[in-house]
Amino acid sequence: MVTVSAGARLHVGFQNLSLAHDRLYGGVGVGLAEPRTRISAEPADGVSASGQPVRRYATRAVERLGVSGVEIEVESSIPRHVGLGSGTQLALAVYAATALAHDRPLAIRSDAPELGRGGRSGVGVATFEAGGFVVDAGHPTTRFTTAPPERGEWTVPPVVARHDLPEAWRFVVVVPDATPGRSGDAEDASIRTVIEDASPGVADEIAGVLTRRLLPAAAAGQLDDFGDAVERIGRLNGTWYTETQGGVFRPPAGRLVEHLDEAPVLTGIGQSSWGPAVYGVTDRIHRDEAENLARDSLDELGLDGSVYVTRPAADGFQVHE
């Protein structure tokens, strides 16, 4: 039996959603140490797995690898459809565990499209591979217009920048109990709507923040500058989604963002992907204060939910044999 685990990821936003520019998407995000998906696999005749998503990914992995079958057990999982990248981490963990159980070589990046992953953002694939703060190159606009390609008919966008963030940093992730974030056909439809109307000027401003503020701060490990730049990119992304999600941030993430934004111990407040997960970053010294603040914010806003405090991931998936 082989066991594979992988941490969640935060998706800060995209560099561009306008068809007026040469490249579309271009994800910006961070790998997290927690929460984690943990998958065990052993060879079998046919596919044995509990839950439709797990069976689907296991079937695709078996077909792609050309093996007899696999028995999958999910020991723990990242919460689904809350903005933490659960789908990509699950798909790739199932694939990796299946391959290793059969002593097959891993081709994570090239096989991810066959699993239906990496079609827009490459952040989840990149953080599964190696963790870190990641910026990907996006896709040529001529190939990726408003209609998504069929599964497997793309390559995962290459990583153009990756930095290990300081081990002393802590990401505070608040997941309110709310309607799940968009995925599948609903996500595709929303993205098409956004792309058709997206302002290229927003992408131009994001490019300036990314190159002159965020990348230097990540490389130098400057917490406050990193947080300010992350927050700005998140809010600029939100202007593209105002019509489709009901504001710069979706409800109730917007209320949490504004509440947490008043706290001096947190910086870089934003919504991950379609939410409802909200995040901020602090340091190890202020960890407990930031966690208490996050829990108090849920209580004061009358929301139930979960709070995770985690370090940035310095590496990708782990294998436990």
UniProtKB/TrEMBL annotation:
Where does the record place the GHMP kinase N-terminal domain? 58-122
GO molecular function terms listed in the Swiss-Prot or TrEMBL record? ATP binding; beta-ribofuranosylaminobenzene 5'-phosphate synthase activity
What UniProt keywords apply to this chain's record, in alphabetical order?
Answer: Glycosyltransferase, Transferase
Q: In which pathway does it act?
A: Cofactor biosynthesis; 5,6,7,8-tetrahydromethanopterin biosynthesis
Q: What is its EC number?
A: 2.4.2.54
Question: Which InterPro entries is this protein grouped with?
Answer: GHMP_kinase_N_dom, RFAP_synthase, Ribosomal_Su5_D2-typ_SF, Ribsml_uS5_D2-typ_fold_subgr
Q: Which domain of life is it from?
A: Archaea
Quaternary context: Homodimer.
Q: What does this protein do?
A: Catalyzes the condensation of 4-aminobenzoate (pABA) with 5-phospho-alpha-D-ribose 1-diphosphate (PRPP) to produce beta-ribofuranosylaminobenzene 5'-phosphate (beta-RFA-P).
Q: Give the protein family.
A: Belongs to the beta-RFA-P synthase family.
**PANTHER family in alphabetical order:** BETA-RIBOFURANOSYLPHENOL 5'-PHOSPHATE SYNTHASE, HOMOSERINE/4-DIPHOSPHOCYTIDYL-2-C-METHYL-D-ERYTHRITOL KINASE
| Listed name of the protein | Beta-ribofuranosylaminobenzene 5'-phosphate synthase
Its source organism is: Halovivax asiaticus JCM 14624
